Amino acid sequence: METTSITVPLAFLAGTLSFISPCVLPLVPVYLGYLSGSTVTDEEQADRWRIFSHALFFVGGFTLIFTLLFGLPATLIGSALNQYSNLIAQVGGVLVILFGLHTIGVVQIPFLNMTKRIDFEHGNTPGYIRSSLIGMAFAAGWTPCIGPLLGAVMTMAMSDPSQGVFFTLIYAAGLALPFLLTAALLTRATDFLRRMNRHARIVQWVSGVFLIGVGLLLVSGQFSTLNSFFINLTPEWLVDHL
Fold first, then answer.
1. HSE (side-chain half, CA atoms, 13 Å) at 226
2. Cα-to-chain-centroid distance, residue 219
3. In angstroms, rounded to a whole number, what is the distance separating the alpha carbons of residues 7 and 227?
4. Where are the domains of the chain?
5. What pLDDT is stored for residue 171 in this prediction?
């Protein structure tokens, strides 16, 4: 698949940048507390496997919503408008550039600043269904905040509609893996995330530059060219399994 060579790592990077974004990163310890029904600030009181297993259901919940709300529509719409794929890529690229400018604060897009925060009380016996539902609510409530990065992935997906769901899953994996790693490491990871949160402005600039770069590639039509370049550098055995 020609388009997967560079799109896959870019989609994964977009998910990771979403995780460390200022609207998600500070709340990761809070979410872990909701999932476990306890605090994660005291490693002796926390049951690592319980927290990690609930985190699996949490990421499964938001992955499902991302796939149903974004991956499938991108595939269906992109397939129906396949003959206009170049135009879709260019228009989408302009939007992605605007998203990037919004992220670094050059322009303001009000609806991207809106989030619906989840307010659950800690329970002594949290269930796995509840963890999945919290993950689904996370996907719905935080979509405006992580929308610029997710939008970039959806634009890439619509330019290659046969891979729309696949790219969405890669994005979700980029968001899920750091969350699962945090759940596994508990206190050490949450302390590190709190220190990283002090550099939120740098994360915003990195995300913004990333979006602007992707947008320029889409507008200029160089995205497919870059893919071809990377596909030539990719070992054949790996290409066969993409």
1. 15
2. 22
3. 8
4. 4-240
5. 93
Dist CA 212 CA 219 (whole Å) = 10
Contacts of 40 (CB under 8 A, 6+ apart): 29, 32, 33, 46, 51, 186, 187, 190
Residue 66 in tokens? 């991302």
| Residue pair 111/144 in contact by the 8 Å Cβ criterion | yes
Q: Whole-model pTM?
A: 0.76
Total residue count of the chain as it appears in this document: 242
End-to-end CA distance of the chain: 7
Q: CA 177, CA 64: separation in Å to the nearest integer?
A: 15
pLDDT beyond 70 at 158: yes
Q: What is the pLDDT of residues 47-71, one digit of tens each?
A: 677 788 888 999 999 999 999 888 8
Place of tokens 């135009």: 87
Positive or negative torsion for Cα 83, 87, 90, 93:
negative
Are residues 162 and 2 in contact, defined by beta-carbon separation less than 8 angstroms? no
229 closest CA partner among 219, 217, 215:
217
How many angstroms separate the CA atoms of 156 and 110, rounded?
24
CB atoms within 10 A of CB 43: 12
Dist. CA 172–CA 65, nearest whole Å: 10
> Can you read off the two tokens belonging to residue 108?
């303001």
Amino acid at 164: G
Q: Are the C-beta atoms of 242 and 5 separated by less than 8 Å?
A: yes
Report the alpha-carbon distance of residue 232 to residue 189 in Å, rounded. 38
Q: Quick check: 145 and 112 in contact, CB under 8 A?
A: yes
CB 79 within 8 A of CB 161: yes
